[in-house]
Every structure is written in structure tokens, then in C-alpha cells.
Amino acid sequence: MQDSFAQKKQAILNDISTNGPDNLDASPKGTIDEHCIAIINLINSHRDMVTTSSCSGRVSVYLEGIQNKLVSKGNEGRWIFVTHDTMNLEDWYKTIDFQYVQEYPSSSYETRSILYKFEALILHVKCRNQSMANKLYSVAMNCGFRESGIGSNYNVAIRTSIKLDVPIGYLGDDNTYRCFVTENYLKYITNVSFDRFKENFKKLEQLYQAIEKYIINLSEPSKDSNDDFDESKCKSFKSKGWESIEERRARMREEGLRKKEELKKAKDAAEST
Amino acid sequence: MQDSFAQKKQAILNDISTNGPDNLDASPKGTIDEHCIAIINLINSHRDMVTTSSCSGRVSVYLEGIQNKLVSKGNEGRWIFVTHDTMNLEDWYKTIDFQYVQEYPSSSYETRSILYKFEALILHVKCRNQSMANKLYSVAMNCGFRESGIGSNYNVAIRTSIKLDVPIGYLGDDNTYRCFVTENYLKYITNVSFDRFKENFKKLEQLYQAIEKYIINLSEPSKDSNDDFDESKCKSFKSKGWESIEERRARMREEGLRKKEELKKAKDAAEST
Questions:
Q1: Are A136 and A252 found together in one domain?
Q2: How far apart are CA B23 and CA B18, in angstroms?
Q3: pLDDT confidence of residue B249
Q4: Is B159 on the interface with A (CB under 8 A)?
Q5: Residue of higher predicted confidence among B228 and A173
Q6: Over the stretch A30-66, which tens digit does the pLDDT of each residue have?
Q7: Model confidence over A52-62: pLDDT tens digits?
Q8: Nearest to residue B172, comparing CAs of B242, B247, B224, B111?
Q9: How many domains does chain B have?
Q10: Residue A220 phi, psi (nearest 5)
């Protein structure tokens, strides 16, 4: 017989396990970010925690809606570009039909602004009780996620302040995207975003290790506890290409070795010319 | 005899009450923002809450420190410009010796970036117990302070996501401030900041009213409780020009009447031409 927390956790895991191209969630992307999967699996392996939403960090270009209030997401606001992956970031602005202009609206209320944003990792974790929520909150704060907090019903939000929020243009009367910064400036903030992503993934890795060290390894593993939730759901993550902690470690090690090898080759090539 | 929370509250109030030009706090400004004083007084009038830090919202231009990590505040990072007040915002960039250039560093790691930021209201409130913290958190969330959270020891952080975070330049090798956006762009983001301030103060006002309605007016007033803290400290706020709730209401009413009168005059003048 499952207790109330275990029942909720099971329902959430059922939802996550069927998430995919055929069953999109409410986020603009519709599926869970690949970079979050390892930490989601780690957190969900603990019987007293379950992840309820996540974003591994992203760059987005957002056209604001018709304004009643600032940065409104309703009223026809829409994403012009979104990526969670540095792979898709280079030259993103060349894929958008921007008209580069030197005109500015006199106020952001008058027109619909276009904003370039870098948003860092955010994780929401439902905990079984106050003690679990406090523990997770402390671990996150100590990893530098200084904007974290505990909400109602032991929901912990893990947040950091790595960000960019840059007005780059507005919607013209003829519905064109007017860009009042130069392409070189867009290139520069894109480069800054690469650095932000790097910092962001470093912090994600630190958080992973801290949760593993100070929470998972210090707790009774959920397998030893009475069968609170369906282990087969975890297996169904894996069958969809989700990594276990061990698989992730192996992949990271392999990637590290490959990069080292590539670096050596590049160095050798440079020395021989 | 004071309980432990009341003792801590008293110590914090002692600190606040002597804060001023001769006794600066740790913030870059060194004193409490005028715009926060009414809500600080309101919150501190409740026996189960005390404000521990506050910023009413600000525009700042920040030169990053020598980089080991991103957006480092240590290592010689410094503010080039800070204001909490729209009065000081217009044409701020004309007071800084910017050299407008069209060159960009290839990465933000290489140089010390100059960032233009709008940061919204943030309030930290220490509560007596979980129940008080939950209540304050709920009120803040319902006012749209969606990044609020409860930390350890019933400390509530009240935060919203109104922001700007714009790279505008870097420190040249010759220690000059190189600005790679145009003066017109600086003017534009300054205008956007006026709108952000407006939205920010609207939310501050909403928060004030909600705390008053759902917390203060529904609680026993602290005067009726056993004398937990020194009332004379509250008087010392007033002697420094701090407003009581009643004084603030009277001033707002007066200002409203004056604005109405001015609007009527302007309308009459327009109609007579």
C-alpha cells in the first residue's frame, strides 16, 4: 500500500515516463531537456523526492505579447528562437529574418519588444517532508544556487542568477522583426551565452555531485525501503535512452578521453607546421 | 522577558534605527532605500516578522572583477553607476566617460565586461515560525512575486522576475570604459528601465496592500501583545523622517489630489486652445 507522497510521485513518474515526441508537456520544447535527465534520475532515485519540472538552461528570443503589463507571456507573445543546447546556438540570428534598423520606439509600452534571454538551470522538486526540503535547499544553496527557496507543500525551487536579458528589437508595423542592435552585437551576446552555458553546466554538475554525496549516499537506498514506487518506470526511462548514473559516468569518461585525444592531435598538427 | 525571536528582532531594529549617513550598512548605497521604508515599517509592526535586508529595485552599471568565474563581484569588480530612483536615471550615461567603439572581445572571459542591470524589489523577512513564513510566502506569490521562497530558519525571500541584464561594453587595456552599443541604445534601455521601475513600484504597492490586508489586519496588533520589543525604536524611525502607515496614506491621498488637480488644469488648458 502506497502512502500519499508515494502515490503522487508514482503519478508524476508515469507522466514523465510517457513524455516524448508523441506526448508533449506544457513547455515550449514539449519534452524534458537531455541535460537534466541524469539529475532527474538521481533525484527520483530517492524515495522522499520527485522532480516536478525542469529546464537545463536555455537561450531564447522572445517577442512580447500585446502589452497590458510588462513581459507578458499571454496575448500572443511567442518564442522566435529557443535552444537548450550550445550546438544549435552558433549563428542562430542568421536563421531569423531580422531587419537591422537604427530606430527605437520611445517606450517599451508602445511596441512589442524582442528580448534575447539566457536563463539558467531551474529545477522544481517535491519533497516528502520539511526535513527533506531543508536538506535539498541547503545542498543547493551551498552549490551557489543562491536564489533557491522552499515553496508550499515542501516544493523546492533550485535557481541561480546566471542570466542575460537584452532588448534587441521590436515588431514593426508591417510585422517584420526590427533589430536595433548590430549583427556583431548579436554575435557577441551569443559568445557570452556560450560562457554562461559553460558556467551553468558546471554548476549543474556540482549540484549533481553534491546531491549524490550529501543526500543519496547518506540515505537508505529506495530499493531497501518498502516498495513505494514502481521500479519498472525507471526502467522505462532507460529504454527511451535515459542514462543511469553509471552509464552517464561511462559516457562522460569516454567523451573526456576523446576530447583529450583530439586536443593532442590538434597540438601535434600545430607543432608539425 | 523577551523570547528568542523578539531578542533577535530587537537587535535587528537597533541596527536599522541607527542606519544613516554616519552608520552605513553593507550595501553599495549604505542606507535603506526610501521606497522600502513604508513596507519595512509595515512588516516590522507585526510581532512575528522582521525585515533583514531590502532593495527597492535599482539600475546599476557594473564592471566585472578579474575573472575566475562569471559575474564575479569579488576581485575588484565595481559599480560604475547605481540608482534606486528614477529621478537620477535620465541621461546617466552622459556622466560616464564612455568611449563608443565597434570592437568586441571574442569572449567575455577575456576581458572585464560592463553590464547594465535592472534589478527588481527584493525583501528578506525573518519570521517567527513556519506558519508565519508560509503566510507571507503565499501573500507574496499571489502578488506575482513568483521567485519568492522560504529559506532556512523561516527566512522568506520575496523576489520577482522583472529584470534587464545587458552587456554594454568592457574595460580597455588603457583602463577606459569601452562601450560597444550606441548612445541611442543606452537611451532606449534607460527608457525601458523607467517602465520597469513603474511596474516594480506598482508591485511593491500591491505587496504592501496585500500584507496589510491579509496579515496585519487579520492579526492581533503588536501593541496588544506583551511588550516584545522596544516601541521607542519605531519612534526613532519616525524622527528620521520614516513614515507611519497613516502618514503614508495621508501623503498618498494628498499627492493623488494634487495630480488630479494638475490633470484637470492641463485638460482645461488644452480645451481652451
A1: no
A2: 7
A3: 53
A4: yes
A5: A173
A6: 778 889 999 999 999 999 999 999 999 999 999 998 8
A7: 999 999 999 99
A8: B111
A9: 2
A10: -65, 130
pLDDT tens figures, A184-235: 999 999 999 999 999 999 999 999 999 999 999 987 654 444 444 443 443 3
Residues of B in contact with A159 (CB under 8 A): 147
Same domain, A259 and A168: no
Name the residue in chain B with its Cα closest to that of A202.
B69
Q: What is the pLDDT of residue B223?
A: 46
Does residue B234 or residue A155 have the better pLDDT?
A155
**If pLDDT is split at 50, 70 and 90, which confidence band does A240 have?**
very low
What is the 8-class DSSP label of residue A207?
H
Give Cα B119 distance to the centre of its chain.
Answer: 8
- Cα B3 from Cα B227, distance rounded (Å): 11
- Rounded to whole angstroms, the Cα distance separating A152 from B156 reads 12
Q: Are residues B142 and B254 in the same domain?
A: no
3-state secondary structure (DSSP) of residue B191: helix
Contact A192 B69 (CB under 8 A): no
Closest residue by Cα to residue A69 from A108, A114, A27, A104 = A108
Residue A129 touches partner B, C-beta closer than 8 Å: no
Residue B218 confidence class, pLDDT cut points 50, 70, 90:
confident
- Reference A111, options A170, A177, A48; nearest CA is A170
**CATH number, domain with residue B231:** 3.30.1960.10
Radius of gyration of chain A (CA): 22
**How large is the ipTM?**
0.77
- What count of CB pairs under 8 Å joins A to B? 111
Q: How far is A101 from chain B (nearest CA, A)?
A: 12
User: Residue A30 in 3-state DSSP?
Assistant: coil
Answer yes or no: do A165 and B164 touch at CB < 8 A.
yes
B126 shares a domain with B259 = no
Q: What range does the domain containing B272 cover?
A: 244-273
For residues A140 and A264, membership in a common domain is answered with: no
Task: Kindly state the average pLDDT of the residues A238-252.
Answer: 47
| Residue in this structure with the C-alpha cell 549604505, named with its chain if needed | B30
Asked if residue A210 and residue A267 are part of one domain, the reply reads: no
Distance CA A116, CA A120 (A): 13
Give the chain B residue nearest A116 (alpha carbons).
B166
Whole-number mean pLDDT of chain A? 83
Q: Would the CB atoms of A152 and B138 count as touching at under 8 Å?
A: yes
User: B143-172 b/e with 16+ CB inside 10 Å = b?
Assistant: bbbebbbbbeebbbbbbbebbbbbbbbbbe
CA distance B120 to B138: 19
A104 touches chain B (CB under 8 A): yes
DSSP H/E element including A53: strand A49-55
Name the least confident of A120-134, A245-259, B222-236: B222-236
> Which set of grid coordinates corresponds to residue B53?
535586508
B141 in the same domain as B15: yes
Same domain, A231 and A258: no
Is A137 within 8 Å of B159 when comparing Cβ atoms? Answer: no
Average pLDDT, chain B: 83
